[in-house]
Design brief:
This protein is α/β, with parallel strands linked by helices. A 7-stranded mixed sheet has the order 4-3-2-5-10-17-16. Strands 1, 6, 7, 8 and 9 form a 5-stranded antiparallel sheet that branches. Strands 13-12-14 form a 3-stranded antiparallel sheet. Helix 2 packs across helix 3 and helix 2 crosses helix 8. It is globular and about 70 Å long. The chain starts with a strand and ends with a strand. The model has no long low-confidence stretch (mean pLDDT 91). One of its GO terms (biological process) is methylation. Pfam families: Methyltransf_28. InterPro entries: NDUFAF7, NDUFAF7_sf, SAM-dependent_MTases_sf.
Amino acid sequence: MTLLDWQAAWQGALYGPDGFYRAAAGPAGHFTTAAHGPLGELLAGAVARMARENGLTHVVDVGAGRGELLTQVHAAGPALRLTGVDVVARPQSLPPEVEWHVAPGGADLPPALRELDHALVIAHEWLDVVPCPIAEVDGDGDLRLVMVDSTTGVESFGALVDGDELAWSTTHWEPTASGDRVEVGLPRDHAWDDLVSRVDRGVLVAVDYGHRGGDRPMEGTLAAYRRGQLVTPVPDGTCDLTAHVAMDTLDHDELLDQRTALRGLGVDGRQPPLDLASRDPQLYLQTLATSSAAAALTAPGGFGDFLWAIKRVG
């Protein structure tokens, strides 16, 4: 039995030499995100519009997967400079104009990614896979790190939480009863601060499933997915591991739900008028497909519950 604290086990499972995100299939082989397919096309249009409205000429996608969103942004805004960041080598399917940086994984960003100017930086479902400590209140009322066997997922208590991690928990996510869990968001806050520091002028947007103070999930949110199915979290490299983000603890100027953010960028789920079907059937079908994708991106209980933390620099 090999016991590690959850942060270390999680890091190895996703970003180690045989980590989940280094596999040839990539994330798209196991689950669909809002950056894929028709939803990705609509999201890319909103990203391109956001860049234009803010006078930005460079779009950077952190946690870009295999470049699915950037490929769509290139089609929506061909004049934009585009850069992708992920742990794998440049995907062969990317348009040649798209730049690519290989990151070490997790919170660590490539050294070359800095001094970004007039940039819109999108961190779409990046912070939820930045590993963080997981802690739980024991029977004596003490907050302890949770240890995990990396091959079975069996958990046990570790050391008492102390120092900066305890201060973060006390300030932002204080548990009250035995069994309450804390996903200590300090590594996510630091990762975001590091990303912000690399922008000279621009706008940064973190998009993730998350929560705010006063609405913390005391049972925790750690989850795992394999081939489209929700499975027991085991940090063995065979499944995605993710936990929602304490979005309000990130340095931000605005914190919006995705419905509000996308509607402000012209995305809504209104159906086309029925008479359009007889006047222009092809246009009706195209508009219907767009409205269906918009409805999915803004739906309560789904992608519409994403939170957008927006930070303006310079």
